[in-house]
Design goal:
17% strand; Dimethylsulfoxide Reductase, domain 2; alpha/beta; binds molybdenum atom
């Protein structure tokens, strides 16, 4: 028997029996009427957790019932309005498949199952296994994979226990390559919210970045401002995205060839001397090397690679240069594409440097953060082995722990890691090949803990599943992002946790107690931590609970003086067009273009991204958002559909280059995708049976990503190198 079988949790185990009538009551008019008359409305501040834009919101309850969630009118992330998904947050509370009891893996008569247990039993089990790992191997042999606002509770627990291996998919599956490329060029990564001054821009360049489908709230608004201001919008995307439909220039690039296009843009800007020579000589290093490097990459050369005509390349390069410095290169966010991702980000950063947009109005503004002090606690022990010791051997410039490296080192009896705690990340659908790697890791690890709100795929790999209450039922750490107007926002409970679910802070503290780490949790309720922090800022929790958001005056200007930049944190203190750091670590100091593999005959690039109605793999079972989009569809170009005799609205299965077959998925025949690519929204095709609505609906892009294009510089898992063809006969 396998040490751990992957369990497709049934919903009965997880929760449903416990749910009474206290949920949102809008399904029937009579119930709704009762709710509206039963009790007066109460508003409680929160921070949305449906994605990481972290909009401040207001939860409207009546008595014990959840009525609606709206944007906090004073908040700069939401600007008073939530996106579809944030409004649908009511479904995160009302989902009948929520986890409401701790579960423990038991083996009976040769089969395994996850059975409800008490919190004490679940926590004692974790405490014993973590103590054993610390004693037998050392605490650094334990890793955590975390995401979201609650991640900080488990980062704190892990550091107190003695490990710094705490990895987030936000790095290697999301923005890590982008931030590494910008760090190498400007000495810092980009912020969230991204500091793109689109509302003041004269030109906006989007490489991929599908704003409008990528529904980051205020970002959609500032993009709309740019459109309304008649700024030149240049969208580089093989697909006619929503953003492309608003653009003056849509460049339907051959997938994977963006570096060729950007080298040609640099070529035009340099050949036509469309840059500020004084700015370049004062603020950058490596200009001569760059000029020599890009000289051969003419628009005529790039045409052959990208399919974008020399006329279009020259015209768009000139528009950018004329608008500079009010020209935003949006850095994108999901950057794990083709394996040359840090270099693609470098190309964007170099163009931004050449156009002098750093710190300039209409370019990148300078974000600022509130200096929120940490609650007093003892210093963390220093781990004997750091995540860096394992990771930097493989990926020399990884600036943060890499989820996929942690997984790799969790496989086999001699693996470095002996235990894993997973909080708010659904690794089987998040890391390409994650499901296979987890299945292997599960054979040897001494402990796997999953902390989740619903029986997602990850819970099927765990020994212990801990039910967190939803974000509407808990406090979390203050939202404190680097942004235009520094602010803090607070998440507070609007409702009592359903069933036996508990907040993350409580879970972390309870595990801490089992590990004799009480000194690191010298408070009874997380409220005390928030209140103490606010007191240091001259505020109190009581006050912030009234407003939800508080703004602080900026300490430094939002823009630099025209033509100047502050000293940067790069080795030279300037913008590094040429990167000596890359050269010293054996990488290309200037971006080099490598042509992507083209699909074999009859196969198509597997393209993927966001649908406005859903977030990642977390909302498909949300009863409200499910109604808006119950399954994803595969976009196929009419020429391809004709060739395969596939009709609009029919179902197919996708077969990838390694023989992996998807769930059946409905076809949308459309010219909005290039004939060499198909498109899928990410997050569908759930395999966990406990997600009753989402189970088996649509196709899972992650399962088809068996070919991973690792970024050799920082380890991100490029996901775009996969090809698919169609199997009609398997979909009937
Ligand atoms: N509704 C919704 N919004 C979200 C999220 C969500 O889950 N749901 N998630 C948020 C998060 S965390 C992230 S990281 C962002 C991700 O959103 P973005 O950062 O905008 O993601 P990208 O990967 O840049 O954009 C996908 C686009 O890239 C195009 N593309 C594919 N291949 C290529 C190529 O080779 N070259 C070029 N130029 N374009 C290509 C695709 O056609 C698609 O339109 O979305 C955020 N917003
Ligand atoms: N194939 C493929 N893979 C991708 C992407 C893609 O487009 N395609 N996108 C990548 C990007 S950009 C990102 S940012 C990552 C995102 O990856 P993840 O952060 O893993 O996002 P989700 O898939 O939504 O998984 C979140 C998990 O947390 C649970 N959860 C939701 N709310 C809570 C809560 O309040 N508390 C707890 N404890 N759990 C909660 C959900 O039930 C779910 O199991 O995925 C990356 N991976
Ligand atoms: S953009 Fe939408 S889902 Fe994301 S935090 Fe804001 S309201 Fe929530
Ligand atoms: Mo992301």
């Amino acid at each position: 028997m396998q040490r751990r079988e992957f369990l497709k949790l049934s919903s009965a185990v997880a929760s449903t029996a416990l749910l009474g009538g206290g949920l949102t009551a809008c399904s029937e008019p009579a119930e709704w009427q009762k709710m509206m008359t039963e009790a007066p409305a109460k508003i409680t501040p929160t921070v949305c957790n449906i994605c990481f834009w972290s909009c401040a919101a207001q939860v409207h309850t009546r008595g014990s019932r959840l009525w609606k969630i709206t944007g906090n009118p004073t908040d700069s992330h939401s600007e008073g309005r939530l996106c579809t998904r944030g409004t649908g947050g009511v479904g995160a509370y009302a989902d009948p498949n929520r986890l409401l009891k701790p579960l423990l893996r038991v083996s009976k008569g040769g089969s395994q199952s996850l059975e409800p247990v008490s919190w004490d039993d679940a926590l004692d089990f974790i405490g014993q296994r973590m103590t054993k790992i610390a004693t037998e191997y050392g605490p650094e042999h334990f890793a955590a994979m975390v995401h979201g606002a609650g991640a900080q509770h488990f980062l704190h627990l892990a550091r107190a226990y003695g490990t710094d291996s705490v990895a987030e998919p936000a790095f290697a599956q999301c923005r890590g390559a982008r931030d590494t490329g910008y760090f190498l060029t400007f000495g810092q990564g980009l912020a969230s919210p991204e500091q793109t001054d689109m509302e003041n821009a004269r030109c906006v360049v989007l490489i991929g970045t599908h704003i409008g489908e990528n529904l980051h709230n205020s970002q959609v608004r500032t993009f709309t401002d740019a459109v309304r201001n008649d700024a030149h919008i240049i969208v580089v995307d093989p697909r006619f995205s929503v953003a492309a439909s608003k653009a003056h220039h849509w460049l339907p690039i051959r997938p994977g060839t963006d570096i060729a296009l950007m080298l040609a843009w640099m070529n035009v800007i340099l050949a036509e001397r469309r840059f500020d020579a004084a700015y370049i000589s004062t603020n950058t290093v490596g200009f001569d090397e760059l000029a020599a490097h890009v000289a051969p990459f003419t628009p005529e050369w790039a045409y052959g690679e990208t399919g974008i005509t020399p006329v279009q390349i020259r015209e768009t390069a000139r528009l950018m240069a004329m608008a500079a410095p009010a020209c935003v290169f949006h850095p994108g966010r999901h950057a794990a594409w083709w394996g040359d991702d840090t270099q693609r980000a470098r190309a964007m950063a170099i163009l931004s440097g050449l156009l002098g947009i750093w710190g300039q109005k209409g370019g990148y503004y300078l974000p600022e953060k509130v200096d929120v002090p940490s609650y007093p606690a003892p210093p963390y022990p220093t781990p004997r082995t750091s995540w860096r010791d394992l990771t930097l051997k493989q990926f020399p410039l990884a600036g943060a722990p890499v989820t996929n490296v942690v997984l790799e080192h969790s496989i086999g009896k001699d693996a470095f890691y002996k235990g894993l705690l997973v909080y708010e990340t659904n690794l089987p659908m998040t890391i390409p090949n994650g499901a296979q790697q987890l299945a292997q890791a599960a054979q040897a690890l001494d402990l796997i803990v999953a902390i989740d709100v619903q029986p997602s795929e990850i819970t099927g790999f765990a020994d212990v599943v801990l039910p967190e209450c939803s974000y509407l039922e808990r406090y979390d750490g203050l939202r404190n992002d680097a942004e235009r107007e520094p602010s803090v926002a607070v998440r507070t409970p609007a409702l009592r946790p359903l069933g036996d679910s508990k907040p993350g802070w409580w879970i972390a503290k309870q595990i801490g107690t089992r590990l004799n780490l009480d000194a690191f949790f010298p408070w009874n309720d997380y409220k005390e931590v928030i209140d103490w922090q606010l007191n240091q800022l001259g505020l109190s929790l009581l006050e912030l609970e009234k407003t939800g958001v508080h703004y602080f005056p900026r300490k430094t200007p939002v823009y630099c003086d025209p033509g100047t930049i502050p000293r940067l944190a790069t080795p030279s203190g300037k913008i590094e067009l040429f990167s000596a750091t890359l050269q010293e670590t054996g990488f290309d100091p200037l971006p080099r273009y490598t042509p992507p593999k083209t699909p074999p005959s009859g196969y198509y690039h597997l393209n993927y991204g966001r649908a406005p109605q859903h977030s990642f793999s977390r909302t498909q079972n949300n009863p409200v958002l499910y109604q808006l989009m119950p399954e994803n569809v595969v976009w196929i170009h009419p020429l391809v559909a004709a060739q395969f005799e596939i009709s609009n609205g029919s179902y197919v299965r996708l077969l990838n280059q390694d023989g992996i077959v998807s769930n059946k998925v409905r076809v949308r025949v459309t010219e909005r995708t290039r004939p060499d690519s198909v498109w899928l929204a990410h997050g569908f095709g759930h395999e966990a049976r406990g997600l009753v609505l989402a189970y088996g609906r649509g196709a899972n892009d992650a399962a088809l990503m068996t070919r991973i294009l690792y970024d050799p510089i920082m380890g991100s898992t490029g996901m775009r190198g996969n090809f698919v063809t169609f199997r009609k006969e398997l979909a009937v």
